Task: structure prediction
Amino acid sequence: MKHFTSVIIFVLLASYYTVAQDTKIRFFGHPGFEYLYNNDLKKGSPYFRSGPFVLFVTSQLNDKVAVAGEVHAHYMATTGAEVEIERLYITYDHKDYLSFRFGKMYTPIGYWNLNYNFGLVLQPTISRPSILQPTHDGGFINTRDAGFQVEGSGISSVGFFYKAFVFNGVGKNGGYLGIPYQLGEAPGAVLQLGLEPTDGLKISASGMYQILQKGYPNQYDSVFTEDIKSMMWAGSVSFMNPDKKFECITEVFYDSKQYKSIGTKGLDGGFIYLGYKLSSKIIPYIYSETTKFDYTDIYYPRINVYTGQPYVDLTKFDLGLRYKYSGSLVYKFELEAMKQDRFGFSFGAKTQVAFVF
Amino acid sequence: MKNKFSPFFKSTFLVLALAAMCVSMAYMMKEPKISGSGIVVVVNKENPISGLTASEVKLYWLRKVKKRWPELNKNIKPADRKNRCPEQDIFYDKVLGMSAADVESYFIQKQYGNAEKPQDKFSNDNDILEFVATEPGAIGFVNKNALNPNVKVVFTLE
Result:
């Protein structure tokens, strides 16, 4: 109840500032339905999804300064109803090649993580890459965090762009409301370098580095028993140009953790999305992803405390159709086949209505 | 006098006539026509830029690659029409090469990804001209007939 009161206060404040500033408020939603049948268990069931309710507000304070805030209310099977600040940051655009961002934001890895997340009306698929599940939901990679970013784009004729982000890191996620000196000393850092040589074609590489310190808490609220050096590499190629028929996003990730006691443990994964616009409204597509999990990595608990399920390898293939009724209303349908360790092979269909208003 | 056409043929004829009327109306609506001799793309008089090609107009209006005007160093502020109109249809189709849904998605994406302000929308050409005349970074499209001397023309689509 307290959370929902906070949301209402936030909305009222946001509405007030709509009058006072050049403010735009958007609400995102994406209810859906799915039926998955597990062939190993010989069991299937229909499932309705409400999806989260997302409030996204931006305001251009002056010619160079803008702010953005994103709040979502959702339901987690393990923790119940939650309201969370997804992003909250201020930007200062000095020049195209130099701007600054301060606050909580998406970490600059690949294309998908920076462009979709809760804006499902923008996301080309229903499925979200499992490798990009955020750490705060029991995922693998810091997909967002609080920190400071320097960035620039459109540099030279090859469209060079960069983003350098210094952030709290996995060990300090609790520091948002906690006591910083109890949450470790070393911040994390990400560097993304890329090119956009032609309109819509983006090629980028990202590297993330964090030291997870002994004696400090991790994302599961347990304590690291030794220093761990965490490194993540991501490569991304995307071609998403609204006036071209062909669409593509493909990304690969490798996340390693170096232990003194057990050596280096790695996690890798990737996905590919290919779409073709039959018309401006109808876009059939295919999507496939894989995540290879190292079961001997002691960083991860046997059971993911956020989902109540064990971490598993996953391979998935989707055949989908997107119907873009307008820019603010999109219908998606996917036939899915998925193989997971410990859960076996499952297949079925998913549908989603994504909107923004 | 006995009617030589059966009710079946009469109703079929009526349905076909209505269908033909709908198809021709849809065809007429498909090709937007504007009064006057075309549309022009205008910027503020402070903007030192002298002329743009169609592809440059697209890059600036969509804030692709550049978010700020070179030399002027001001935010590029695209001006659009609030409701669908022939000028907008032609600008989207001939200059941007995009559908209205794609333009809408594009600006939502820019806002969602980078907190970029979407395009300002106006009810008519005069409001766009007034906005462009007062905002140094503005760029908009209007019917050539509505043009006034308070703005600078950088592109003409005949």
